[in-house]
Amino acid sequence: NAEYGGEQDVVWVKQNIRLPRLDAFKIQIEGVVGNGYRGDISVDDISFRDCHVQTLCSADQFACANGKQCIDKKLVCDFGFDCDDHSDEAKCGGCDFSHNTCGYQNTGGVDWVRDNLYAQKGDYYLNTHWPYGSDYTKKATVTSPKIGHSSSSCSFTYDVQLAGPNMTVEVVVDSKGTGHKSLDKISKNTGTTTWETRSVNMGSVVGSARDFQVSFVGTLNSKDPTYHNLNLDNIVFSPDCAAVASIHKAPADMSTPLGAKAMFVCGAKGDPTPTVTWFNEKGAELGSANFSSDGGRIWQDDKNSLMFNSTKMEDAGTYTCNSSNSFGSKKASAQLVILSKCDFEMGMCGWENLATSADDFDWERAQAETLSYGTGPIVDHTLGSSDGYYVYTEASYPRLPQDKAILTLPHIYKTGPRCELRFWYHMMGSGIGSLKATATDHSGTVVASWLKDGEQSAQWLQGGMYMPHADDVTIEFVAVRGDNYEGDIALDDMEFVNCDMNLQPICNPGTEFMCDSGQCVPKKAQCDATPDCFDHSDEIPSNCIGNCDFEGNNCNWRDQIKNTQFNWTRHHGRSPSWFTGPNSDHTTGTGSGTYIYIETSVPQQPGDKAVIRSPRIQSTGSRCFLSFWYHMSGSHIGSLELYEINSYGIREKLWEKGGSDMGPDWLNAGVYVGSTYTTKFEFVGTKGPGYEGDIAIDDVNFGQCSYLLDDCDPVSEFKCYNGQCVDASKLCDLKEDCYDGSDERFCDANCNFEEGTCGWHNIAGVDVFDWTRYRGETASIGTGPRVDHTTLTEEGYYMYIETSSPRKLGDTAVLVSHWLSLTGTGCVLSFFYHMEGRTIGALLIETEQSTGKTVLKNLTGVADGWQHGRVPLTESKEFRIRITGIAGSSYESDIAIDDVSIRGCKVMSSCGQSRFTCDDKTCVSADTECNFEKDCSDGSDEAICPAKCNFEDKTLCGWVNSQSSDIMWQTHQGPTSSLHTGPDADHTKGDASGTYAYVEASNAVIGNEAVLVSSAYVRSAASCKLNFYAYMYGEHIGSLLVNVLPEGGRKELLLNETGDHGQGWKAFSANIGARTNFQVSLVAVMGTSFKGDIAIDDVVFQDCALSGGAVITGPPQDTSGLVDSEVKLTCTVSGSPYPTITWTDPTNRTVAASGRVKQTGDHGSILDITEARISDSGMYTCTAHNDKSSASASAHVTITEKPQPCPSGRSSATGTTPCKNCPVGTYQPQSGQKSCISCPSGQTTDRDGSTAQSECHDTLQPCSVGTYSVSGIQPCQPCSAGTYQDGTGQKTCKQCKADTYQDASGSTQCKDCPAGQSTQGHAGSDSVDDCVGLCPAGYYSSTGSAPGCTMCKKGYYQDRAGQTSCIDCPGGNTTDGQGSTSLNDCKSYNKC
Length: 1392
Hints:
Blueprint: E1 61-63, E2 70-72, E3 105-106, E4 113-115, E5 125-130, E6 140-143, E7 147-149, E8 156-163, E9 167-175, E10 179-188, E11 196-200, H1 202-206, E12 210-220, E13 228-237, E14 246-249, E15 254-257, E16 262-264, E17 267-269, E18 275-279, E19 285-288, E20 292-293, E21 298-300, E22 306-308, E23 317-325, E24 328-339, E25 341-342, E26 352-353, E27 364-367, E28 389-393, E29 404-414, E30 420-427, E31 434-440, E32 446-453, E33 461-466, E34 471-480, E35 489-497, E36 512-514, E37 520-522, E38 558-559, E39 569-572, E40 594-598, E41 609-613, E42 617-620, E43 625-632, E44 639-645, E45 651-658, E46 667-672, E47 676-686, E48 695-703, E49 717-719, E50 725-727, E51 761-762, E52 772-775, E53 797-801, E54 812-816, E55 820-823, E56 828-835, E57 842-849, E58 852-859, E59 863-872, E60 877-886, E61 895-903, E62 906-909, E63 915-917, E64 923-925, E65 948-949, E66 960-961, E67 970-973, E68 995-999, E69 1009-1013, E70 1017-1020, E71 1025-1031, E72 1039-1046, E73 1052-1058, E74 1066-1071, E75 1075-1085, E76 1094-1102, E77 1111-1114, E78 1119-1122, E79 1127-1130, ...
């Protein structure tokens, strides 16, 4: 050991350490951090000198030439390589004499020597000769070293040159047990300069040899005056010479998807034939000689390969094959990696950079932002954190355009029939090149591929490849660098799914949709506005009538002429008018993508309408919904309406927006459609008051509309109030998945903190400091998040505890929810937390009941990045959640939370919707919270917004430092740190033990602002004012401002006090007046230097409570009813004067006093819906208003169809709706049935929902005409519209040829377009509307079809219909006019 401590010198210091004699050692250099940051330690130029390495091998071992290995001496010269450098076989008979004689020695009267004069196949060879006059009777013999064992099939080759007459070369072997035997003999009477390669089958002569030597004997047959040369070279023993068991083909490391096949090869040789035995990494013997285990899942084939029929996670590890016979044994090992999901958090998971000339640079594993601005992700996809890992390609210098980086996963043996590779990619930047994924089999055939070119998005996007029955494939991701450095490309979360060999090879026609590629996705995923097939075929408009992205055409959406003044226009890029319309479409997000819009410039007049109508939707199922994206930006926006038109021509409004600027972004909307028959839909755009009113639509999608889909599953799905079905896991997940928002309706504790704290509040009196709502990076280095979890940007909000001074170890901050009640089982509290810092404290999650508190989770470890916490909830009523942050031992212990939600069940305030639950569990109206009046007897409705604050509890009493602040307000006791400024005591107590709030000017610069913001208040009286005391003493005092901040409005200055006000506390007052939904801010503006401390104390809102304001004392309750029934909601109110009551419907329209839906009762307190319809479902809001205040409460109305008998082919437990299709293999011919009838034994049906026994057929029958399947056998699927199949047992359908169409499914032929019409060369047409008229003779167009036909110009003609150009008259001739139809119209005219 050598140790050096403390500061040494400012220059490099040389140190020498004397090492003792050591065996198998390594050197460790350890650096220990000192007590401060000025403690960097460096080392350089490490070298070993005078260290002669001694062999580590024993007397019975052979030392390999590399000095690193020792092997048994019995393994030397056994024709198997046991040393990594092959030195154990270097002197074992084979030799090319390039460097030495390989142990061959002269044993005759004439010597052999190394020479290179006549080199042919190598630099050197062995030469012997008999000079003139020498004794020609002497033989030239060279003998090999002693070689161990050879097999009975051993052979070798050698090169020989007899460069003189009358010479003979004989090859002999001397072996233990067989003696001296001749193997080969060659004689020449005349010399030659030609080298001859000779082959010797030693095994056929001596069988299996042991301890043998080979000799080459040269003989001169007669005395001759000629010079004689005999040359020998390139002695090569074949691999078959090995008698001892060997492994000529070792197993290779393999990565394979979970459930796929895997195979390890073990090619063994030896004489006698070796036995191969496999072992797992624990050393346990799996078996040998065609063994089988785990029910035949793992087995050894007749070639000794280890096979895995369907891999499991526990199969991962090292596997060793042992080849053994009577002469010895050899082992070889390989690693099996089971691929499920690679998030790159712990490494590369078997993915590796391609190490060939095919690529130019490498993929790198990285965290946080990439090196270049304007490109690459800032967080990974897995964690959404700068601490998470991903892989990426860095496009900066020295990279050049078209440089490639290739990430590969070699040798996946076999995958199942449904295998998919899913991944997330990030391609943002002006210099993005391309990213291509391929799966290539052993023959070089690409079996699956995926490609993206150019910039895609600033977000992580999902991609995938479908690769069924992949056989010995290699996966590659090829990133090609674009034209500048803003071209970083990233990958994360690579996942193989559905690769199990045991999965059924064909899609279940009852529950699954088969993509064009053969991939299977849930049937309800078809036409749901989200591509689930990797080839997007589940969303192709031809498969989804009415769906349209407007990229190629309007998808049969047609402008209506009747009662309209102008049309919708297909367009790309920005619209022609400034300050309105989108800059790009929604589908591609680029200027080249297409959308439809209304242009509201002249000559359009205010109120003009443009109507576009969908194609006829023949029928829809109970789950059907319509979603679309709209853009309504501009100061003159009119309105956008959506109507449904039934088979009787009755129009019903489903949705409406308008009257105001909706912002610059595309917005998503949707409506529940449900079961319909022969229905159409219309979008109506209405021009507003000016030209800045363009309205656009894109990506219209009808989702889950198949009548074959069942109603909502009561276990796995949530049925929205409008009837829509969404996954149950999306209930209360902080995102509205129901178009009426009902999945987030009963989620009172859920909050992403983007718009506020959602009722979560700091609790006074039981903790030391408060949680703060914040965004961006916290003030302390080395702790706290940089981005929120919701948006993963610096603009998103979260809650956190700031643990800088004056916080100390163990200080607590408690955040609590309202008192809650749960409905349902499987409730889970979900939250995201961030606990990064060297001295992190703890995060405690509890529930509080009247009987005490229950700890759910106590988090104490460091957690880099946002982490997901999940805790089951068992409470059912009257409890609240407490989240306690505990400070660590230093400022590096900030803790943050975000996206708090209770999922999987309904969550309400204990008092229900539109009511506030007091801490004593009594109930008051929700609009009484933060109204300056204690409506709860315990005052808890004003707890988060106290009207008074003297700072004595050392908190800011609900006031918070704004994120816009340059410096912070803080509580303090006694004098401030600067002389001649600030108070010596507070105002409340008048001594140094009292607390006040102040801003320290020492570290500020002129103009810095400290902004303190109050809680949000719902209303105030006209007499409301803010009183407080301020201490503004010092020659550098700036200003103290009081502002009011109306919700959604601009701040208003109420008070401005500037300059030195002398020593002592001074009273100030700011008039607030009557307001609703507002906050107040106190702003300290710093002066020119440190003598500018500003302090406040005893802050009081005075005379702010508003008496007689409108209050809802009995809010409406959620109600349900059946179609054609009467449904009522009741809303009772109070106030002085008595409030006016208004109701609004789900489209935000005011309900009238008459009609089918009307306002009735005393003062309009009742909403009465008669002859209820499905479209009446949704949220209704009661608003009470008088001249003092307003209050609102809402309730949901759910209208459902009357139970109907299940139709034939469907059944339910009651025989009435909701019903489910009869499964495949069953049928039901009658309606109103509670079960289905099974097909006779050995028979099945093609689909679910069968209605007759005649649909049952024998299994394994070929697909009939008009149908197909992946295997060509039943069950089969009908060919979709635009395709047909006229053969049986087919695996695909045929596309309709050009100028034909087919608008029905299951067809055996296509229909011809009407006479004179064409599909413009397009195949696969699914509607007669694709057939358009041909341009007649004498006309042409760019497509050969109308519209746009143009008459041939003078001097041209066209004698055929449907042409794209006209023909020039030959020989300078011309025509009499335009539109000529024949060559005969071309004439010659003489010039005057």
